[in-house]
Design goal:
Blueprint: H1 4-21, H2 25-39, H3 45-48, H4 54-65, H5 71-82, H6 89-103, E1 106-113, H7 119-133, E2 136-143, E3 151-155, E4 158-161, H8 164-176
Helix pairs in contact: 1-2, 1-6, 2-6, 4-5
Keywords: ATP synthesis, Cell inner membrane, Cell membrane, CF(1), Hydrogen ion transport, Ion transport, Membrane, Transport
GO molecular function: proton-transporting ATP synthase activity, rotational mechanism
Membrane topology: Peripheral membrane protein
């Protein structure tokens, strides 16, 4: 099977373009998030594999989603059901989110540190990343004591490993070669 993002991209792009046109990016993000959660539900998953006809599946899916999905969102669900693609809704949501961040000139950065970062440290990291990436940065911070000290920052394709454990691993690799 083709990679999920390849299958999901046209749906996400169409939804995003429509959302931009209608000035409804936030509401579409919420709809897609909810639909993605429904598609990942353990009760719903078996039904997505072809147990029902596409129209029955679309009707059931829309009924489960209820008021959370508007008429245009329902149309997307129907098209995806007709094409047997409802299982890629989580990937559609992820891509939609990426398109939205790109459009808003935002990037989410994951910061894993050995200890809790202070607000000042978070601000410094955010400012440095914003300067480097020329985008607004939203930090998602977490703590991993196994890093010993330092941080690992991931923003899109950019990975900055400033952790002591990372430095020790690189040193070990150099010594072994």
């Amino acid at each position: 099977m083709a990679e999920l993002s390849t299958i999901a991209r046209p749906y996400a792009k169409a939804a995003f373009d429509f959302a931009i046109e209608k000035n409804a990016v936030e509401s579409w993000a919420e709809m897609l998030s909810f639909a993605a959660q429904v598609s990942e539900n353990e009760t719903m998953k078996p039904l997505l594999s072809g147990a029902l006809s596409s129209s029955q599946l679309a009707d059931l899916f829309i009924k489960v989603c209820g008021e959370q999905i508007n008429e245009q969102g329902q149309n997307l669900i129907k098209v995806m059901a007709e094409n047997g693609r409802l299982e890629v809704l989580p990937a559609v949501y992820e891509l939609f989110h990426e398109f939205s961040n790109e459009w808003a000139k935002e990037v989410e950065a994951s910061v894993v540190s050995a200890t809790e970062l202070s607000a000042e440290q978070q601000q410094q990291i955010s400012a440095s990343l914003e300067k480097r990436l020329t985008r607004k940065v939203k930090l998602n911070c977490s703590v991993d004591a196994s890093l010993v000290a330092g941080v690992i920052i991931t923003a899109g394709d950019l990975v900055i490993d400033g952790s002591v454990s990372g430095k020790l691993n690189r040193l070990s690799e150099k010594l072994q070669s």
